[in-house]
Design goal:
disordered N terminus; two-stranded parallel sheet; 12 helices; alpha/beta; 14 strands
Length: 388
């Protein structure tokens, strides 16, 4: 029963933030830092939330002078705070940052990547935008309305390793699965627009701030749904390499299977975003799933998990498949890349998208409870296995 509580309490809380942040888009074709006080009011999620103190749970914003600093991060404990990050930008070129909910109970980190579609050409970036926040300035006010408002009060459980960790939220406003480093210009009719596909650079800048400002972590959990799950996978290696003593890094990708996209999309994504890949990575140019093979080989002590619906309609549309074709592609991916001791998947029937909002009730095709599977992933239990 306690283990069930770990999965539901943490993952319906911490992971739900990731899930709720993944807005569905149809694919077209101690002492605080000097701060400015409360910031606006919210949308997305459910990780550990801001303290419901006299400010009614509003987030705090750290002053811009802190961004990129070598000084310790001393944001309020158990409260979501917006932290500007020097060098981080959204698709429209405006500066951005990260959310942080600091804990003093452990040095570990939970890093959540926001989801919300992708864009790679004039149609998907301008005509029918297929990604969130492409024209937004993701700042403290948007963080409050996009994430903090739907959080619950922070609760720390000493027996739950995710609960005692410092939580970090990486917003998604670059349209590139958190994996690009290029600025592109797209034209649709009379409209020409620069799009900063710089998600990978934003992650690097955030990691530099966390490395300089927080204690060395022993363990880091990377969690994301939809586009955020791709960000978690594609940024695993940079997270391992970001700290003086590489931490153990575990990854959970919800509705983010590394199946290779159909037609010319794979080439377009890699080219337009200059997509981040692990190094070395044999066959990554031709097979997206090779990313998992490379990461699992390099980091044998890490647990890399995938949650997915067999005919996920959102992923099928973005990747250029119908439901049955995606199901076949997913089966092939699982057979080839999720049979190692450190890579396992949880596949459920249906065409829904994003699973972490249903931790308490979701079951795989073979009847395994998602709460049981997630608990095993968190704690590294021998019962963590493929569930199909």
């Amino acid at each position: 029963m306690h283990r069930m509580r770990i999965a539901i309490g943490i993952l319906a809380c911490v992971l739900l933030a990731s899930a709720c942040s993944s807005k569905k888009h149809s694919a077209p074709g101690e002492q605080s830092d000097s701060s400015t006080g409360p910031a606006g009011q919210p949308d997305s999620g459910g990780l550990d939330a801001a303290n419901t103190a006299a400010d009614g749970g509003a987030t705090t914003m750290v002053g811009a002078s802190d961004a990129g600093s070598l000084q310790p991060i001393t944001t309020p404990v158990d409260q979501w705070t917006w932290l500007p990050i020097e060098g981080a930008h959204c698709a429209n070129g405006t500066p951005t940052g990260i959310g942080i909910n600091r804990s003093t109970m452990s040095n570990d980190l939970v890093i959540m990547f926001e989801g919300g579609g992708a864009c790679w050409d004039a149609t998907t970036c301008i005509t029918t935008p297929a990604a969130v926040h492409l024209q937004d300035t993701y700042d403290a006010t948007l963080f409050q309305s996009d994430f903090v408002a739907k959080q619950s009060p922070t609760q720390r459980d000493p027996q739950n390793p995710l609960s005692t960790a410092t939580s970090v939220f990486i917003p998604y406003c670059t349209g590139d699965l958190h994996a690009g480093d290029k600025v592109r210009s797209y034209t649709a009719g009379s409209v020409t627009r620069e799009v900063h596909h710089v998600g990978a650079l934003n992650v690097d800048a955030a990691l530099a701030r966390l490395r300089n400002g927080l204690p060395q972590p022993n363990t880091v959990w990377l969690i994301g749904s939809s586009a955020g799950g791709y960000g978690a996978q594609l940024n695993m290696q940079p997270v391992v390499n970001a700290f003086a003593h590489p931490p153990q890094v575990h990854v959970l990708a919800d509705s983010s299977p590394l199946v290779t996209p159909a037609d010319a999309r794979w080439t377009a994504w890699k080219s337009q975003w200059h997509m981040r890949m692990p190094t070395p990575c044999n066959n990554c140019d031709t097979r997206f799933g090779a990313v998992i093979d490379a990461l699992a080989s390099q980091y044998a002590g890490s647990r890399i998990g995938l949650l997915e619906y067999a005919q996920d309609a959102t992923i099928a549309q973005y990747f250029g498949f119908d439901g049955p074709t995606l199901s076949m592609q997913l089966d092939a991916l699982v057979r080839q890349s999720y049979q190692r001791d450190n890579t396992h998947s949880f596949i459920a029937p249906g065409n829904a998208h994003v699973m972490l909002g249903n931790v308490a009730t979701q079951k795989s095709a073979d009847g395994t409870a998602l709460s049981t599977w997630l608990t095993a992933w968190i704690l590294g239990l021998p019962t963590w296995q493929n569930a199909h």
